[in-house]
Every structure is written in C-alpha cells, then in structure tokens.
Design goal:
- Helix 4 crosses helix 5.
- This protein has five helices and no strands.
- Helices cover 74% and strands 0% of the residues.
C-alpha cells in the first residue's frame, strides 16, 4: 500500500514538473528559512524541485520499458522504477511522505506553484 501511495504521488508530481520548470517568472529574493506559500520553506521547495527533476528523468527512462512489457515483467520494471524514484526523493533530503505532501499541495495551490517556480528560477547566491 505504501509503495502504491508513493508511486501515485511520484508519478503525479512528475507530470507537474515540466510545467513548473518551463515557466519563467522573475526570481524573488527571500530567506531560505522563511516559510513560503503553503507553509514550505524555500529550501524545501528547492529540494522538491530537485527531486521532481530526477523523477522526470527516471520516468522518461522507464516509460518505454513499460510500454511493451507483459504482466510479470511490467511489475518488475515498475517496482524498480518506484525504488529509484524513492531513492531520488530521499537523496534530495525529503522523505517520500513529505514529497507526496508537497506534491499534493503544489497541485492544489496556485500561489504555491508560483512560489515553487520562483524558487526554481532564482539565481544561486554568489
């Protein structure tokens, strides 16, 4: 059950990732520790964006493998894909639960989506 929830959240977020990163909004300077729209800090949003990028790559890598796969092979490939997605989320510094929470919030909250776009498009501090 936990794998199914993680997979649903990860896959839903991967579809959102392209639109969030494709937008070009002017960067706003804000302290990394200050909570942003949705109650998430800029640092958390940045981690979320990094995880989304990796999940997109993994999804792109595994989608062609899933298209022609039969039942048992498809299940094995899906399990491997979900495992790699989970690793990518944890490598970004988030738990799968936090990532899924953020994914759901980003999908529902337009202000949070805009803030995420600003954080992802912000110039790194020199």
């Amino acid at each position: 059950m936990r794998v199914a929830i993680l997979a649903a959240g990860l896959l839903a977020a991967s579809t959102f990732a392209a639109s969030a990163q494709a937008q070009t909004a002017p960067a706003a300077e804000a302290p990394a520790a200050a909570p942003a729209a949705g109650g998430f800090t800029d640092a958390e949003l940045k981690s979320f964006g990094e995880a989304m990028t990796q999940i997109q790559k993994i999804n792109g890598e595994y989608s062609p493998k899933l298209v022609g796969a039969d039942g048992p092979t498809k299940a094995t490939v899906q399990k491997e894909m979900i495992g790699k997605m989970g690793e990518a989320v944890q490598a970004s510094g988030l738990t799968p639960e936090k990532y899924n929470q953020m994914s759901a919030a980003v999908q529902k909250d337009n202000a949070l989506r805009q803030r995420l776009t600003q954080v992802l498009n912000a110039e790194p501090a020199a």
